[in-house]
């Protein structure tokens, strides 16, 4: 039960941090205007990317990796998966989606510590 509560707290925290960072990147760093990409779509895609990956980080991947390598391997995999989601759904260059995913995940990881 305690692990589930910690998961929900981590999930909410991750969503807030990563959606905020994604929004800032898309609007200010990439300068994509609302006419081309709506606020709703950015928020939805940010939510979807984290929603699709965080359960694996908490519940599935720990079964396959040693704790020593778990965080590094899991985070690298999640950065790649979320980058593909951003690339496909936001129609941005893959290089940009990879950087955005790396920054979003790094922020949620280090701020969450």
Keywords:
single chain; mainly alpha
Please render the helix and strand layout as text.
Blueprint lengths: L1 H28 L9 H22 L6 H24 L3 H19 L1
Describe this entry's structure for a reader.
The protein is mostly helical. It has one domain. The protein is built from four helices and no strands. It has helices spanning 2-29, 39-60, 67-90, 94-112. Helix 1 packs across helix 4. 23% of the residues are buried. The model has no long low-confidence stretch (mean pLDDT 92).
Uncertain segments are none
Task: Give the H and E element order.
Answer: HHHH
**What gross morphology would you assign?**
globular
Helix content percent band: over 70%
Mean pLDDT: 92
Span between termini = 21 Å
**Number of spatially distinct domains:** 1
Report the count of strand segments.
0
Coarse structural class = mainly alpha
What percent strand?
under 5%
What's the helix count? 4
Rg over CA atoms, rounded to whole Å, is: 14 Å
């Amino acid at each position: 039960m305690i692990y589930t509560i910690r998961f929900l707290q981590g999930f909410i925290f991750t969503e807030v941090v990563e959606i905020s960072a994604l929004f800032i990147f898309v609007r200010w760093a990439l300068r994509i205007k609302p006419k081309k990409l709506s606020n709703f779509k950015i928020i939805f895609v940010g939510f979807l990317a984290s929603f699709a990956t965080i359960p694996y980080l908490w519940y599935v991947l720990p079964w396959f990796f040693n704790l020593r390598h778990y965080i590094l391997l899991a985070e690298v995999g999640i950065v790649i998966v979320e980058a593909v989601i951003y690339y496909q759904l936001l129609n941005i260059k893959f290089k940009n989606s990879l950087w955005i995913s790396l920054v979003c995940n790094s922020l949620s990881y280090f701020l969450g510590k």
